[in-house]
Amino acid sequence: MPRILVVDDQKDVRAMISMVLRVNHVDVVEAASASAGLQVFRETPCDAAIVDVFLGDANGLDLVARLREIVPDLPVVAVSGMTAFDGAALSEELTRVVYLQKPFRPAELMHAVAAARTAVAQPDANGTTIAASA
Questions:
Q1: What's CA 81's distance to the chain center, in Å?
Q2: CA distance 72 to 105
Q3: More confident residue, 133 or 48
Q4: pLDDT score at 115
Q5: Cβ neighbours for 99, distance < 8 A, ≥ 6 positions apart
Q6: For the segment 63-97, what is each residue's pLDDT rounded down to a tens digit?
Q7: How many Å apart are CA 5 and CA 113, to the nearest integer?
Q8: Burial bucket for residue 44 (CB in 10 Å: 0-12, 13-18, 19+)
Q9: For a 10 Å CB count at each end of the chain, is N or C smaller?
Q10: Which residues 6+ apart lie within 8 Å of 75 measured at CB?
Q11: Would you call 130 exposed, middle or buried from its count of C-beta atoms within 10 A (0-12, 13-18, 19+)?
């Protein structure tokens, strides 16, 4: 069973994401902050991560970069309520990340997870970020 790290500072959002993943036979580990997410990631092997871009204690994209320093080909879905992800591909660690705008439906979340796995397995010619769409 794959294991996905979910990092979101909003308890309800984190719970909803985790519930969708569990219904789809995914093992989930949760964290409410970037620092907790990094600690959990170091202690528990994960196959992918879903990270809120705007965390209360840090920038979620900074967390993604740190996770990618540990596992360079980690599939990542970055979620945000913002309509644009300006500057998302400013570093190599932030390329091949799938971006999903809140609110999203369960099927859109699962599509984004699948797209994130594909993005690291077969990056596009430019190595750019990918916006998920259902």
A1: 14
A2: 28
A3: 48
A4: 95
A5: 77, 78, 79, 80, 85, 88, 129, 130, 131, 132
A6: 999 999 999 999 999 998 875 555 455 555 567 89
A7: 12
A8: exposed
A9: N
A10: 47, 48, 49, 98, 113, 116, 117, 119, 120
A11: buried
Residue-wise pLDDT for 6-31, tens only, equals 999 999 999 999 999 999 999 999 99
54: left (phi over 0), alpha (psi -120 to 50) or beta: beta
Amino acid at site 131: A
CA distances for 80 relative to 16, 25, 54, 69, angstroms: 14, 24, 7, 22
DSSP-assigned letter for residue 48: E
The pTM of this model reads 0.86
Q: Is 25 left (phi over 0), alpha (psi -120 to 50) or beta?
A: left
**Tokens 């970069």 sit at which residue?**
65
Structure tokens at 57: 């204690």
